[in-house]
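quick one before i forget lol
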Amino acid sequence: MEEITLLSKVFEILANNNKGSYVFLSDIKTGYSRWSKECVEEFGLPSDRIEDAGLIWAEHVHPSDRARYDQSLEDVFSGRTDSHDLVYRARNKYGEYVAVTCRGKVIRDDDNTPLFFAGTIINHGIASEYDNVTNLYTKEKLIETLADYKEDKQRYNILFIGIYNFIDINNVYGYEFGNKVIKNFAEKLLEYTDDAEVFSAGGTKFAVVSTELKLSQLKEIYEELADYGRYSITVDGTHVAIMLGASCTEVTNFAVDEHTVFSNGLRGLEESMYEKHGEINAFSNSLMDKSHERLVLLNALRNSILEDCDGFSLVFQPVIDAETESLKGAEALVRWKKDPYGNVSPADFIAWLEDDPLFYDLGLWIAENAMRFWKENVLTVRPDLNLSINLSYTQLERSNFRKDFANLIKELDFPADRLKVELTERCTILDKHFLRNEIIFMKSQGIDTIIDDFGTGFSAMELLLVLPVSGIKIDRSFVSGIAEDIRKQAVAEAIITCAQKMGLHITVEGVESGIIRDAVKSFGASSYQGYFYSVPVPIEDFVKLPFM
């Protein structure tokens, strides 16, 4: 009895001295619990002394988090584990869901018999501001913070960090284990909040924002985190190594909006992870270097999209039949030109914009205008010619893409059998089952799907076993200098032969000369595309080409 009385006194002290941090103590044998009065008041619990508190509290847990909550308590009370550590959403007395971190521990006697389950619940506030896995501020809160800095003309530095081997971790250990890895890393990030704010930037991406720390200091933080990720993460007794990439930006130009900063940072992060093997990308506005110019240019591009895609235009490059060298169709390509920037290469601005939410709007603009121009200017003369349109992964992953794309075709009354869609290289980072379903949807609409840039990046022959595509487009890097390079000849021939046997249409792009055409002619490709036949031209010039 003395131990229980002492425990009760300790509870009274702890329960009433931590605002926003609530204490609970449950007798495992009887199911009787005590709760902080502040928690009872905030969440509308029946009393600070409750029987079957686990079931009562469960009614406050968000439905999407309930399964994780139930499983965690089951693990504790069945004896599988002595600890409970979970971030979830709970409904307060006002009907609002707030983010909470609940941590508990089983207390045992000298005979190892479980006596009590005790712990704390930390109330983080309205759940919309907190990510329920990492317990960090959300991406939306990050954008809001950057907007406030812009309005106040407050200079700041921002570090984006991403985990780029996370798919492997999920595949090996499972989804729940992966969430624990993310949470472990997020808790490490919270160690830097004395001089910075830390956010989830979506999925396995994070952001550290500071008005105090210099770029050099943020780089040092990244180096510390990279070492931590490689050597110090242990989950459920298993050591896990995560690989990081990062981009770091100094923001002093207040004409640049918060979405531009975010998109620029994510693009720099992608470059770090997939092109620089984790080496940090540092963008300094104050140095007025190319990185700063890119940030300003990205802002101008975004503004152009918001202004009904002012400054954007379309050109069309012919696709030629390999056997007859007659016109089979064309690929629609986007261009951008605006003072004082002049012509900007699509190789640059597509990559910069692809992670931006506005890219979806640009993609629909491209599709709508390409189909309209083609129907009005080409199909009236040559109804047999096909139009190819590129699709980005950011378009495909939008939930309303299918509906929007199908509506465009219907509104324009465009013949679907004359339309082909080309999946850009980064589309293949999407889940293969999801991508397969999107291709099947296109096929159901009568639209053929082609893998663009085949052989580069994530593209591989194994994709052809999974994805029901109609064809591939061999990347220009395989044919540049092919006449003099026996190895390129061997690779190109192998790809074309394999694709032929699978019944696929093969387009070779980058046919810039008769020498290249002659070098690949014997391999058996279906079509050619390149400057040897025509550069990309506006629609009014396309209809004047001799092929027409």
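fyi Confidence is low (pLDDT under 50) at residues 285-289.
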